[in-house]
Every structure is written in structure tokens, then in C-alpha cells.
Amino acid sequence: EKEEEEAAAAEEEEEEAASDKEVDLEERLGELDLRSDSDVPDVPPPTDSTPEILKRALSGLSARWKNWWIRGILTLAMISVFFLIIYLGSFMLMLLVLSIQVKCYHEIITIGYRVYHSYDLPWFRSLSWYFLLCVNYFFYGETVADYFATFVQRREQLQFLIRYHRFISFALYLTGFCMFVLSLVKKHYRLQFYMFAWTHVTLLITVTQSHLVIQNLFEGMIWFLVPISSVICNDITAYIFGFFFGRTPLIKLSPKKTWEGFIGGFFSTVVFGFIFSYFLAQHQYFVCPVEYNSETNRFVTECEPSELFQMKKYSVPPLLQAVLGWETVNMYPFQMHSIALSTFASLIGPFGGFFASGFKRAFKIKDFADTIPGHGGIMDRFDCQYLMATFVHVYITSFIRGPNPSKLLKQLLILQPEQQLSVYKTLKSHLVEKGILQPSLRG
């Protein structure tokens, strides 16, 4: 009996010790979850990537004016390259969007890699890039199936990939998911799941939004250029107004942003968008939907412009008639839509920048990277563009887009002859009932 009592007491002591260990472990993990921002590990500051020739030329200026000139020169250079890519056509713009997406993804993933000291995590970087590949395969495959149906139909080797595209995409993702589970190691579980979530949020921010940018581009280059240019204009003019006239801080997340810059940027952007839209709306190259011509293997932008891009006469409101002295004004309907786009770019778009500022402050970094001297990383310049891309896509689907006969015809041409004949008979019967066709019509 004594031995049994001693054994029972020993078991109780072991259970209590194990329980204490579990409680202690939970408390320590809880402390990790409740860490303040001051406990976040420091990320090495980015190096100064300013070219030596600029450093020497601007050596006599104060730090404030030196930054002004560096930002100005690099801004003009980037705008020039952007116009060159526009001249080269839609395909080069798509490659530009893809390149920016990959670079932004790399910058955000690298921050997570450094902040959480993920150097010893197995397969982390490989899996991060694998998931990027999977998600891009899915989205770009959807684009190919949607806009290049005729091209795919002529190539048997692509038909299998398109037919089972979603299944293949899901299988690829499952492979990465299983690889992640197999990579889990003791003492690193929580950190590995942190980084898994970090990767997927980054994919949501970068890949999904860049896909929407390309979808907007296919609606017509003007839906790509006006929103992007409006964000760029707002960024530049808000900086200029803030630099020269800024006195009142706008938001604590960005101490350099001022109300003067915010308001000046708003009015400048609306005026710019209205005028810029007027010039773009005159050219088919910018207003026609981007379509792929399978016969020439090229993207074409030729069409009869829709009503949005045909000049119309509008009555000026009585209040403005006294100021302007005009009773009517001629303009393109798209210019009215440009006001909505510019307003969003200048009032809501900056919140993408504020969000990015909060993110950088959370991890004690000044910029996402040092890719562009005076500007920081690519993500520092395109943080507002992602919000803009989503808004434009929603705006088009809600207020602009209607049935597309050209797109529907492409889908019908993919069908088997029997299916096409069935569609033809159904459509003919419907048109006869509507009185559009005479019953005696043969075909």
C-alpha cells in the first residue's frame, strides 16, 4: 500500500510539473504575442544608392534641397521611361506591370525575412517564390483563356492546359502547401506560420492587384494611363505644395505630409486628369480595347470608339454660366469619369501610402528598399497604385462595362460545329419571336 501511495504521489508531482511547464510556456508565448513595437527587431537601414555624379554635383546643397533635386531628376527619368514603354505598346506595359509586381513582392518578403530572422527556416524563400509562381500561373492563365481563346484553339498543346487550368493551378498550390507542412520543425512552428501568413498577405497585395491592372488595360489603354498618371500627378504636386507651402501636419503616420500638400495635390490632380483625358480620348490607340489578333500575332487597338469617347455638348450649370460666360461646353463623356478617378486618386489613394508608412514604422524602416535614389524601393512608389487598380476595376464593372459582342463571338467560335449550330438555331428562334427576323428567312 505504501508503494502504491508513493507511486501515486510521484505521478501527481510529475503531472503538476508538466502542468507548470505548460503554463509557463503559454505565458512566454503570450508575452511574445503582446510585444510592443519597441520590441520588434531592427532591420538594417538601406544603403545610399545615389550615383556618385549626383552626390558631387549636389554636394554644396542642404540635405533638404539635395533630396529635392535627387527626387526631381529621378522622377523625370522614370516618367520618360514610362512614356517610352507606352510607345512600345500594350505587351511591354504588361511586362512592366509583371516586373513591378515581382520587385514589390521581393521587397516585402525580404523585410519579413530580416525582421523575423528567418535565416534558419527550411525552404522558406523557395516556398515564397514557388507560391508567387503558382498564383501568377493561375491569374495569367485565366487571362490567356479569356482574351486569347482563338489563339489557344489553334494550338493543341495549349488546349489541355487551358481546359484543366484551374485543376492544374490547384494541384500546384497543394504541392506547395504539402511542402510547407513537411518543412515544419520543432521550436519554429509559430515563426513558420507567421511567415506563411506573411507570404500569402503579400501575394494578395501584389499579385491580385497587378492582375486587376492588366484587366483594366484590356478595357482600353486610357483606363490604365489616366488612373496611374493621376496617382503620379497627385504624388508629385502634393510633394511640391507641401515642400513650399506646407505648415499643417496631416497625419502622424507621415509627419512630412501636410494639409497644404494634400489640398493642393487634390485640385491639381482633378485638373490634370480632366485635361489629360481630353487628349487621350482623341486617339483610337488609347481608347480602343486591347485585343489579340491571332492572324498577325500582335495586340491591336482598332475600333469604332464608343459613346464615352465621342464629343458631346453639355449645358453649363447656371451658377457657372455667370462665372465662365458659357451656356454650353463640348467635351468627351469620359472626362466626367476622369473626375471620379482623379478624386479617388487624390483623396483615397494617399491612404495606401499612409498604410505603407504605418507598415514601415511597425518594423522600424525608412523605405522598403533602396532601389531608386531619393524615392526608396519600388513599393514606396507604387503603394497607392494598388488601391487605385482595385477601384478602377470595380468602377468599370459597376458603371461602364456592358455585354461585349466581340468577346462573346470568340467564345462561340471555340465551340464544336454542332454546338454552334444549336446556338444559331436558338438565337434565330428568339429573333423571330421578337419580330426582328421574318419567319420565312432561311439559313
DSSP summary, beta strand count:
6
What characteristic shape results from the CA principal axes? flat
Q: What percentage of the residues does DSSP assign to strands (E)?
A: under 5%
Sheet with the most strands, sense and barrel status: 2 strands, antiparallel
The helix/strand class is mainly alpha
User: Order of SSEs, N→C?
Assistant: HHHHHHHHHHEEHHEEEHEHHHHH
Q: Gap between N and C termini, in Å?
A: 102 Å
Order the strands across the largest sheet as they lie in space. Answer: 1-2
Number of helices: 18
- Contiguous low-pLDDT stretches (5 residues minimum) are 28-36
Average residue pLDDT: 82
- As a whole number of angstroms, the C-alpha radius of gyration is 29 Å
- Percent of residues in helices: over 70%
Enzyme class: transferase
GO molecular function, one term: phosphatidate cytidylyltransferase activity
Family: Belongs to the CDS family.
Pathway: Lipid metabolism; Phospholipid metabolism; CDP-diacylglycerol biosynthesis; CDP-diacylglycerol from sn-glycerol 3-phosphate: step 3/3
